[in-house]
Design brief:
The chain is mostly beta strands. 2% of the residues lie in helices and 53% in strands. It has one helix at residues 94-97; strands at residues 2-3, 12-15, 18-30, 34-43, 49-55, 59-60, 66-76, 79-83, 89-93, 109-115, 118-123, 127-135, 148-153, 163-167, 175-179, 184-188. The strands form four sheets. A five-stranded antiparallel sheet has the order 9-8-7-10-11. Strands 14-13-12-15-16 form a five-stranded antiparallel sheet, with no helix packed on it. A hairpin with a 4-residue loop joins strand 15 (175-179) and strand 16. The longest helix has 4 residues, at 94-97. It is found in: Cytoplasm. GO terms for molecular function: translation elongation factor activity. Keywords: Cytoplasm, Elongation factor, Protein biosynthesis.
Length: 191
């Protein structure tokens, strides 16, 4: 058990017997009146957001989740199926995958996050390399400053295609590196 004042952003805690991840923490008060902690949290099982205010001496159980390396296999509406190295299959609902849906590709390796023996979501690598499948050509004369254009990247499910803002010199069929946390272009990958 930890006091509220010891909980940090990214910690997973039990609130009303539900696993919640702390997304943001705002501290108010003084040492004389006591501190309060306003947390923006997300339920790990339902992905529903929640905001609560706690006193600094409130206690919480910190949960450590299990993680296992898995490979994306296929989409079985409405579940996404992943497989580990021992050929065990894990089904995860689309709404629990969040932004990861836009980056999934057949055979992609990521980490499945488990709570109570059940796979609840996946964590992507920080950076991934994807092929640009569509991008407008650069317009002559539109090169002053840091000009960006939209580029669609390859993934397994066309309905979840992601658009990344890239520099004008990036063209269709280029391989680009993307930061999956921010959806930002990093660089062109040359072979």
């Amino acid at each position: 058990m930890k006091f509220a004042k010891e909980i940090r952003v990214g910690n997973i805690i039990m609130v009303d017997s539900k696993p919640m991840i702390v997304l943001r923490s705002d501290v108010n008060g003084s040492s004389r009146t006591g501190f309060t902690y306003k947390w923006k949290m997300k339920n790990l099982l339902t992905n529903s957001p929640q905001e609560n205010v706690f006193r600094g001496d409130d206690k919480f159980e910190v949960v450590v989740l299990d993680k296992k390396e898995v490979t994306y296999s296929y989409f079985a509406d409405p579940l996404y199926v992943f497989m580990d190295s021992e050929y065990n299959q894990y089904e995860i609902e689309g709404e629990n995958l969040g932004d990861a849906l836009g980056y999934l590709k057949d055979g992609m390796t990521c980490e499945a996050v488990f709570y109570d023996g059940k796979a609840i979501s996946v964590e992507l690598p920080t950076t991934i390399v994807r092929q640009v499948i569509y991008s407008e050509p650069a317009v002559k004369g539109n090169t002053s400053g840091n000009v960006l254009k939209e580029a669609k990247i390859e993934n397994a499910i066309e309905a979840n295609q992601i658009v990344v803002m890239v520099p004008l010199f990036v063209s269709q069929d280029d391989q680009i590196e993307i930061d999956t946390r921010t959806n930002e272009y990093k660089k062109v990958v040359r072979n």
